[in-house]
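Our collaborator T.R. sent over the components below with a one-line note: 'Predict the complex.' Nothing else. No constraints on interfaces, no templates requested, no preferences about which chain binds where. So this is a plain run: every listed entity goes in together, and whatever single assembly comes back becomes the starting point for the next discussion.
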Amino acid sequence: MNAYVADFAALDFSRRESRVETYIRQTTFDRPTLVIDVDHVEAQFHALKAGLGHARIHYAVKANPQREIIERLVELGSGFDAASRAEVELCLSLGARPENISFGNTVKKARDIEFAYHAGVTLFAADAEEELEKIAEFAPGAQIYIRLIVDASQADWPLSRKFGCGRDKTIELLDMARDLGLDPVGLSFHVGSQTKQAEMWIETLDQVATAWAAAKEAGHELSLLNIGGGFPAYYGEAIQRPTAYAARVMELIEQRFGHVAHVMAEPGRGLVAEAGAIAAEVLLVSKKSHNDLHRWVYLDIGKFSGLAETMDEAIRYQFLTPRDHEATGPCILAGPSCDSADVLYEKRPVELPLSLRSGDQIIIRNCGAYTSTYASVGFNGFPPLDVAVI
Amino acid sequence: MNAYVADFAALDFSRRESRVETYIRQTTFDRPTLVIDVDHVEAQFHALKAGLGHARIHYAVKANPQREIIERLVELGSGFDAASRAEVELCLSLGARPENISFGNTVKKARDIEFAYHAGVTLFAADAEEELEKIAEFAPGAQIYIRLIVDASQADWPLSRKFGCGRDKTIELLDMARDLGLDPVGLSFHVGSQTKQAEMWIETLDQVATAWAAAKEAGHELSLLNIGGGFPAYYGEAIQRPTAYAARVMELIEQRFGHVAHVMAEPGRGLVAEAGAIAAEVLLVSKKSHNDLHRWVYLDIGKFSGLAETMDEAIRYQFLTPRDHEATGPCILAGPSCDSADVLYEKRPVELPLSLRSGDQIIIRNCGAYTSTYASVGFNGFPPLDVAVI
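Returned assembly:
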């Protein structure tokens, strides 16, 4: 091990360098590349499963639809949560069985519902009358779960009111589904992406349990509770580890719902984020003015080429550079495009080595989720994020 | 003309239905599609040119790199402003001469500078020491313009401090360029995208004129003023029409700079936005709760599939539907993805027909700029925005 490697390896933000990070450090890339370790996905699947008990994992394909990830999860017997017809097709083409795929987007084209139904998908999400009408017409008799809006949680990427119905409409929608000949089997919700501790689920679970009890009271024999995602990844702030986290969530559910025959969990970020890292490059380090407090550091990847989750500085990635043993200072971090909105972190600057300069490699840690598919097709002529699987 | 068409045509937000809008209304699309009228681009080129006088147009390719647009502009003798190596390559492959292409991104990879230089590109932007060093090494002797930061303007999509140097560094950077063997020929700035009236340029031009005079005073024989973009498109609020707008900007420049040998203008949005419209479809209309004030309307296109400029509700698109002759009410408008951030307009709801429903076609007006390339490669499995040229 040479001095460079030793120095680099010594730099450790609270945990050891991962396999993908080691691989990136030893490799030269021509353009930004997401490197994924599928064995890490498998280990995380087992860790979550160990805590989830009888709950079934439906991987949220949108987090990262990379072929090798889906294939491995098919081998492991995972279910899948698909956001679109293309995701249904992808899972089917890689060996998933249609009964293990749920069509979880509450907003679907009629012809996509029809496609999924004919492909054998039997479980659909809905949160509105018109959606139930479409499903009843194009997937007659299908199983339905109604998604509820829950109040803002303590998640790092909290959800808006975009998905779900108010609790005042739950029973009506269940009734309507039944009257349309559908099979209303349960409820779903989402606690908010990147919910760092299991205890943060309590308030949300209390709300859903109330709706659940009311629906049963109204005569609906609910058998499915879809608890959505929210399982966190490590971005520098403490998170509960997966098995303990999942076990505690299940315990909180048991306390509020008793035994539910079918519990579905839809981890995306929590399953794949820590399995990936991005190899990027520093393009420019500059100061705008003599009296500027902070340097500007420009990378060859930005908000429109994979790091969309830096929107409003919500997700705060961690960085590794070959100069991390040197003194650091705060930087404003920006992407390579000519768009002034393509600034990653400005309100809360990032600490990076003072000696950092153009041409240096930079590793963005725990980037396996919500990066490759968020990349634009070619904004400013920059190609989409490249992906390598090790 | 049948009743439907008559009704639809009668619906006119301050100006007539365009050719692309008529085309969309008469066509069925399987997925969201941007339709572009290249003759409209040509007409707009002539309209801007008529006002710009001796100033040369360098089309900002990033606004829309569609092949047919570039080809038409090559025929018309336009220059091009490229944001990346891929954009330089695109222009060259479609017949642009390298001396008509400027590499306008102030943040470039060293190997991309080298590529452009060897391809014959002679004009490069810079705003920092390290960038000048890269250009001096990989494009020795190249012509340089230094980009200045200007104070926030009255633009609808104002620029951050991401690009440009403070005015206290301008002369230093010009000196440094000269000392590195480069040819510092001028200055550039950007007034901010979608600056609706020429008079809004005054404050910015005053700032740049001060820097220009100081640089000349310091012995720099500046011959190039790159005035960037900012030329507006119609999004429902009054804008000055292109010839009058451009003529007034040139007049304001003449008053402050006297005769400048080479003036470059880089319209992007102002050249192509009004030449395109998007065909989209309503997926769902719903109310979340009985006491909700507004309906939610979900489209098959959103923030991650072409409408990125709705970020912070900055660019407010106009819509046409086949039901526009009916009574309207306010809606929250959202995209099709499972991302809660994929909401287009919520703070300021959009007026749409009360009878609007799933399956209805919706036309998004004046979408020719900053849509197709902003689309993600496949977020949630949705394919990138399709493009058709008429």
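Summary for T.R.: Residues 1-14 of chain A have pLDDT under 50 and may be disordered.
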